[in-house]
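Lab meeting, item 3. Inverse folding demo.
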């Protein structure tokens, strides 16, 4: 039996903990979260896990791994404590908003050879993975253009924006990781443009809510990322990959697949409302993979190095936005 502990019983910690505990070979032993909540109570009831202090987790030799889903400012410290205690870890992105600290943590993890997996769940979406497999099979020929759309249904509270590190580090970081995952090549430059069109309070907080980012590759290929904090029709998550031999597209996941044809035209359901619905199967697949890592049957598909690289691209995109010029990487 694999025994785990979760740090953070908020929205995403709750999802990870339940997905982990649903697997037959896994037991959620501990929960670490000082803030009372309905999610915390529900986790206790559904899993039988005990609420404890962090030191209890790291001192217990029976704990095989930890889920780090607490606030971003705690991630680096918890990873280092897990490394010291010899425990495998699954950590939500990002490791930190401080790139130097991310580098130091990634080096410590690599030196200890402790399994560490980053929570970039889009890599586990069945359709996005199929796109990558088709690319690797050669059906698209030479890759030329990647276009990815990420539009949230509504902007987050401004207080969240202020502590999130900004749009590029909080939201677009997933797209930077997906660009690396799909293209299989590191970009050589980044150019970003952004505006404040959705919520004036976001602009007053010093951030943007609408953006275009262009990544260029040594091969000449380009990737364009389209972001918005607002989508009136649901969670917009699509990509299109064009190559010398054809085109691959992965569209939105709709609330249902029923279409109605009538005299006024055709209607269909809207996209799933938000990421928890859109990526339900991806989160489950992500945990199946991490349990294989814990058993020694696999290595993390998405490591601390991947998290470091995605944050680097986010920081360089922000530099481009502020300087209004292309940044060579």
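The presenter then showed the designed sequence:
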């Amino acid at each position: 039996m694999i025994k785990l502990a979760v740090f953070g019983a908020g929205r995403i910690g709750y999802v990870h903990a339940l997905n982990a505990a649903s697997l037959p070979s896994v037991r959620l032993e501990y929960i670490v979260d000082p803030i009372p909540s309905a999610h915390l109570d529900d986790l206790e009831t559904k899993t039988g896990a005990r609420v404890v202090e962090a030191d209890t987790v790291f001192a217990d030799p029976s704990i095989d791994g930890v889920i780090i889903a607490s606030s971003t400012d705690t991630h680096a410290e918890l990873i280092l404590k897990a490394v010291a205690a010899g425990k495998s870890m699954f950590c939500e992105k990002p490791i930190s908003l401080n790139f130097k600290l991310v580098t130091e943590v990634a080096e410590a993890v690599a030196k200890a050879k402790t399994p560490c997996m980053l929570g970039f769940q889009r890599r586990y979406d069945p359709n996005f993975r199929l796109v990558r497999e088709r690319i690797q099979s050669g059906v698209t020929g030479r890759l030329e253009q990647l276009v990815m759309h990420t539009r949230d249904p509504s902007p987050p509270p401004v207080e969240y924006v202020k502590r999130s590190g900004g749009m590029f580090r909080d939201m677009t970081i997933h797209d930077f990781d997906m660009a690396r995952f799909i293209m299989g090549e590191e970009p050589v430059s980044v150019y970003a443009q952004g505006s404040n069109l959705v919520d004036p309070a976001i602009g007053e907080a010093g951030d943007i809510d609408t953006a275009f980012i262009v990544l260029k590759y040594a091969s000449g290929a380009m990737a364009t990322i389209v972001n918005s904090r607002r989508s009136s029709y649901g969670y917009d998550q699509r990509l299109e990959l064009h190559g010398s031999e054809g085109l691959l597209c992965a569209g939105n996941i709709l609330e249902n697949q029923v279409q109605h044809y009538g005299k006024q035209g055709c209607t269909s359901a809207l996209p799933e409302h938000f990421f928890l619905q859109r990526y339900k199967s991806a989160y489950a697949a992500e945990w199946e993979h991490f349990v294989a890592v814990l058993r020694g049957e696999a290595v993390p598909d998405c490591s601390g190095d991947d998290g470091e690289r995605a944050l680097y691209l986010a920081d360089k995109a922000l530099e481009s936005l502020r300087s209004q010029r292309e940044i060579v990487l």
